[in-house]
Each structure stands twice: as structure tokens, then as C-alpha cells.
Design a protein that fits this description.
- This protein is α+β, with helices and mostly antiparallel strands.
- It is built from three helices and nine strands.
Length: about 130
């Protein structure tokens, strides 16, 4: 498991990104691992992923660890709902219910098709 000390040895934090402090790789042509380049790549669902010491992490979790020295206890929520915006001001340690507030549309198993509305004893209720 990666530590805050190891992260701070390898990377600096700059405006929602972790940036390499040292170059790694073979020669001058290895631009991808050059000092000053940002860490990570985008995944299909919009989150940025990053490999550190042969382990793949979500970048926003590494940024949280870099700042606070531990991984979050619960979910790590992007306040603005944009998974690519990893600025520390946009991240919060969130409960399940707080994290669900960012949903853009109703879940697939929602029979009504309306987010935040459910049926109990033939009556509709809103969350």
C-alpha cells in the first residue's frame, strides 16, 4: 500500500494533478515518464487512473492521500460531479447518501424513472 511519504517523494501536487518530480525511463525519448509531466490517464467512466509502484489507483484517491496522509474512510466524492476535476477543494469524504446525491439520472432498477421518488404502501414518497 502506498504511503503519503512515498507519494510526496515521487510527486508534487499542482491544481488537481500529481506531477512527477523525477524522470524515469530510457533516455530522452521517454517523454511519458519525464519530470514535470502529470500522472494518470482517463478511464471510460471519466475517472483518472494512475499506476504507482505497479499498483493502479484512482487519481483522486491518491490526491486525498497526498494531502491528508490516509485514504478516505467512506466514499470520496467529487462535489461538482465531474470525475475529472480532482482539485482538493472539489473532493470530500462522503457517506453513501451524500455520494448518491450527485446522480444525474434515475438508476436502472428505478420503476418510476424519477430520481428521488419511491413507492411505499401504494403511496409515493420523495427523498
Amino acid at each position: 500500500m502506498i504511503t503519503q511519504e512515498r507519494l510526496k517523494d515521487l510527486f508534487d501536487y499542482q491544481d488537481g494533478q500529481l506531477v512527477r518530480k523525477i524522470s524515469r525511463g530510457r533516455g530522452e525519448k521517454s517523454v511519458r515518464w519525464k519530470a514535470g509531466t502529470p500522472l494518470g490517464h482517463s478511464s471510460k467512466n471519466g475517472y483518472k487512473l494512475a499506476g504507482v509502484d505497479y499498483v493502479l489507483y484512482k487519481l483522486h484517491r491518491l490526491i486525498w492521500l497526498w494531502h491528508y496522509g490516509e485514504f478516505p474512510e467512506n466514499h470520496l466524492d467529487h462535489i461538482d460531479g465531474n470525475p475529472a476535476n480532482n482539485r482538493i477543494e472539489n473532493l470530500r469524504n462522503a457517506t453513501d447518501s451524500q455520494n448518491m446525491q450527485n446522480q444525474r439520472k434515475a438508476r436502472i432498477n428505478n420503476k418510476l424513472g424519477i430520481q428521488g421518488v419511491y413507492k411505499v404502501n401504494n403511496r409515493f414518497r420523495a427523498v
